[in-house]
Please model this.
Amino acid sequence: MSDVVNTTGPAVSTRGLEVVYGRVAALKGIDLDVGSGRITAVIGPNGAGKTTLLRTICGLERPAAGEVLIDDQRVESASPEAMLERGVALVPEGRHVFPHLTVRDNLRLGAFGQRRSRSIVSERIEYTFEWFPVLAEYMDRPAGTLSGGEQQMLAVARALMSQPRILCLDEPSLGLAPKLVKHMLGMLGQMRDRGATILLVEQFAYLALQAADDAYLLENGSIVRSGRSADLLADELVRESYLGMRVRRAG
Amino acid sequence: MRTTRLTQLMFVLGIGAVALIPLSGVNQFWIFFITVSIVQAILLASLNVTLGYAGLISLGHNALYAIGGYATAYFTVSIGLPVGFGILLGLAFGVLAGIALALTTLRARAVYFGIITLAFLFLTFETVSKWEVLGSFRGFPNIPGLSVGGYVFGRNEYYWFALGVFVLAMGALQQLSSSAIGRSFVAIRENEAAAASLGISPFGTKTLNLAVSGGLAGLAGALFAHLSGGIFPEAASFTNALRLFVAIVIGGTGTFAGPLVGIAIISTVDRFTVNWTTAQPIIFSGMLLGSLVLMRFGVVGTILTSRLRGLFLRLPELEIPVENFKRTKRRQPRAKRVNVLEVMGLAKRFDGVQALAGVDLSMEEGTIHGLIGPNGSGKTTLVNCLTGFLHRDRGRVVFQGREVKRARPHAMARAGMVRIFQHPETFGRLLVIQNVMMGLHLRSDRNLFRCMLPIPSRRRSEQELLGDALSVLSRVGLADRALLPVGSLPYGEQRLLEVARAMAARPQLLILDEPATGLTSIELVRLADLLRELRSSGMSILLIEHNMEFVMGLVDRVTVLERGECIAAGEPDLIQRDPAVVEAYLGERIPA
Amino acid sequence: MDVAIQQLLVGLSLGSIYALIALGYSLVFSTMRVVNFAQGHLVMLSSLIVVTLWVDRGWPVGLAVLASTVIVAAVALLLERAVSLQKSAAASPLVWIITTLGAAIVIENVAAIIFGKDPKPFPALVPGPLVRIGGAAVTRDSLLAIVVALALMGIIDQFLKRSIWGKAVQATAYSPWVPRLMGIPVGRVVAISFALSGAIAGVTGALMGPVFRDASSNLGLQLGLLGFIAVVIGGMGSTVGALVGGMSLGVLQTVLRGQLPPGAGTAAIFLALIVLLVLRPSGIFGRDWGRQASGNEGLA
Model:
C-alpha cells in the first residue's frame, strides 16, 4: 500500500451524486467524503443503494448527475480501468475470484498492469502474504476449491496487487463466519494504520462501525446520518433503521 | 396481435382481388409463379410462428418443408396412396420432425438452437440426396397431381386451392395468436423464467410450437410437391434456407403482413436475378446484413411505427364493466388449522457454499409468513428450491398435504404455488394488461384445436379473461395503466403489476421475494392492504423482505434465516427483540 | 485387425481437422458467448488460399500456409469488430447470428468468385510413399494432420494455462466485467480469441486439403457443422474436450462410412448429435466456466 498519507483533503468525494436505474432513483444527492488514511463505512438496510454508490465511485456505473472527485479532479465518467490507474481498486460483492485459475494466477492477474516485470509482481505477491499468510499454502490450488473465507481473502489480496491508494470493499462479510469477519475488519484497521484509505460497504452495521473511523447511514438512496462512527454506534437510529422499528415520517 | 375491422376488410378485399387474377387472362406461367409464392408464404408463416411468436431462431426451417414434400412423394409414388392421404402424411411428418427438433431444446443451451436447425437441415439434405428409397439425387420427378372425382387440377385450380389453404392457415394462426396458446409462445419468448412461474411449461410450449409450425411447413412442402409435380433435394438446400430467412428478416416477424411482404420482395428479387446464379447468394446476404443495419423490425415493422401501429393493432374496445375482483367470502376459521406448507431439513449447496443447511419452516393456511435474514442467508435460495428453480440436495417439502418429490417451476405453479422474483421479471415489451393475461394462463382454454377456430364460446371466454385481468388491475390500482407498455411504468408500479399478475393465477400460496424494494410509502401502504385482503380471502402468503417496518406490521409469523440456518421463528414482536436476530442483522455489539 | 488400424488412423487424421475447428468454436464462445457460424468457412477459405498460392503461384508451401494464416486471422478480426460493435446487453441473439451467418455466406461466395466454383485438387503436403503401421497403410499427410493438430492444441493449451494473456482469456470467459477491475482490457482479450481462432482455422485449412483431397468453396457449411458436433461431444470451453470430441467424431465417421451405404454415415452422425443434445448437452468435458449465475437448472 502506498505510504504516502495525503492529509490535505479527502481522498475521494462525491457531490450531489445521483444514479438512476430506469425510472428509479437509486441514489439521490449524495455528498460523501472518504478521508485520506481513514476507514469510511457506508451502512444501511438492503436496497438503500450502498452497492450502487460503490460501483459508481469505482467507474462501473455512470451517474445521472453530480460529481465524483479524486484530487479535485472530476472522475465520475471514468471507466474502471481509468479508476484503477488513479489508484482505486474494488473488491466486488460476491468475491468473484477466477475459480479455474490458481491462487497465484488470480494474484498475478490483479497486477495485470505490471505483467512485464516478474520481480515487481513477485514482490507484491510476497506483500500480500504478510496480510494473508494462509494464501501462501494454496498458491497452486484452483481458487474455486478454497473456502468462502479464503476466497474473500484472495479477492482482497488480488485487489492489493495493483497497489491501490484507495481500497473499496463491497460487503466482504457476505457468507462469512463472524470470527472471520472480525479478523478481516481487524486487518483493514491495520492497513489503515499504515496509511491506507478504505471505503467499506457493509451490511453488519455494528461490526462495520466498530472498525471504521467515519460512517454514513444510507436509506432509500439518501444519507440520513453521517459522522464519526463512534457517534453512530451510540445512535439508536441505526438499530431502528435496520429492524424497522422507527415510525416512518410522512413522504 | 389483434386486428381491427379495417385490416380484416383490407385482407378480404386483397384476397378477393388475388383470387380473380386467373380469370384475367394472365399468362399461365405467372399463375404458376404466384401459386408457388403462395405456398412459400405458407412456409414463411410457419417460420413466423416459430421465430416471430416464440423467438426460436430456426435457421433450417425448410427442412420441415422438404420432409413434408418427400413424405407425400414417397407415399403417393412409391406406395401408391391417394394424393389426399399423401398430403396429410406430409403434414404429419412435418409435425413429427418439429417435435424431434423440440426435443433438443430440453436441455441444450438456447444459444445452440440455430446451429442445431442447420444440422437438422444438413441431415435432411444428406438423407434425401443419398438414400435410394427417396430417389437419391434424382428426387421424385413424377408426382401425381391433385384430382377431385376424376377432374384433374389445372394451374388455375391449384392456384385457388393454394390460396384457400393459405387463407385457412392464416385464419387459424390469427385465432391462435389471440388465444392462450399464442400468448404462451410470446411468454416463452419474452421471459422464460416468468412464464414458468405462471404455469407455462417452457419445454411443452416449445414442443407445441414446433409441432404446429412443422405441420404447417410440412403441409406447404406437400402442396408444392403435387403442385409442381416433383420434389428434389434442393428443397432442403442451404440456399433455400437462406432465402427463407432473408424473407422473414426483411418482412419482419411482428405482424401478419410481414411474411407476405417478405416473400413478395424475395420472389421479385429472385425473378429478376434468376440468371445471376453466382451473384444471387451475395445479393441475399447483402440484403440480410443490410436489413440488420437499416430495418430493425423489418420493412413492415418500419412502416408501422407508432401511430400507424396503433391503427392496425388496436385492442378491441374495452367495454367490459370493471367490477371488483370477486371477493371470496371471509373464510370461517377451520376447526383444525391446516399447514399449507411444511419444509423439513432443506439443504442445498452450490458454488462451494452451503447455501441452506437444513431449514425447517411451517406455514399455516391463510396466514402471511415473513422470511427475513441478512444478505446471503439463503432466503431466495429457499424459495428457488421450493418452486423448482433449483433442485434441493436434501430435505422434504409438503405442499397442501402432498409431498413434493421433484419440483419444477411450471408444475409448482399449476399445483398452486406462484412466486415473484427478487428483480422485476415482467414481460417488458408487452402491455400491462397482456402481462396480467399471462397470469391467467392456467385458467384459459388451452386446447389446440379450439384455439385455432373462431368459435363463439372461445370468444366469450377470452372476454371473461379480459374482464378478470382488468378487475385484478383495478384491485392493485393500475387499471388506468392497462394499455401502457410495461417498460414505461415506474419501478414501483412494475412490482405491483407483478403482484397483480401472480394474483391472477389465484394461487394457494403466493411467494413474494422482496416486493417492497423501490416502492414509495404510498405504494407500500397499498401493497400491505392488498396482501391483507388476499389473506382474508384464504390465500397464504410467504413474504421475503428486508424492509422490516413493512414486514413486521403485516405478518402473522416470522422465520429468520442466517447463513442457511433457521435461527428464530415466531411472532413479529418477539423476533424484533430476540438478541440472536439483532446480532444476525447488526453484528455483535460490544458493550461500550 | 489391419482394417481396424487403418480406419483408426484415417479416423484420427480426419478427427484432427474436426478437433481444430472445435477449438476455434470454443475460444470464441467462451469469451463472447457467440457461436461463430463462419468458423468452418474460415477453414475453407484458408484451404483455397493455400492451394492457390502454392500450386498456382508456385510459392513455397510454408510461406503459403503462413500467408493464409495471417489473412484468415485478419478476416476473423474483422468479423469480431462487426459482432462486438453491435453486441449490447439488450440486443437480440438474432444480431450476432445474422452477422456471423451473413459473413459465412459472403466468404463462401467471394471465394467462389475469386477461386471459381470447381473444387481444386489439393496435392500432398508431404510427398512420399505410404507409411506402413502394423498392417495398415496411411498417407504421410494423414500423420502430419494428427501431429500438427496435437502440437497446435498443445500450444494453445499452454498459452491458456501459462501466459498472462491466456489467463486473461480464462478470466474473461468467467465474467465480462470482473477482469476490468484489474485493468484487463476485455475488448482486446475478445479480439485475441477471435484472431487466434482465425489463425487456427488458417493452419487447419492447409491440413484439410490433403485429407479431403480438394479445396472447394462449398465445404464451409459441412466443416462448420461437423466441427460443431465435435465441440458438443467434447464440451465447450475445454481444449481437451475439443481434442477428444474431434478425434472420436473422426473415427466414428470413418467406421460408419465403411459399414453403411453412402451418405447414411453422415446422416447417422447428425442423428447422433440430436440424441446427444437431448441426453448430455454439456459434452464430456463441458465446463460451466464457473459463471456466477447459477441456478435455473430446473427450468425445463
Residues 217 and 225 of chain A are 5 Å apart (CA to CA). The first strand of chain A starts at residue 12 and ends at 21. The interface with chain B takes residues 21-24, 45-47, 144-145, 147-148, 151, 171, 174-175, 177-178, 181, 203-208, 210, 233-234, 238-239, 242-246, 248, 250-251 of chain A (CB under 8 Å).
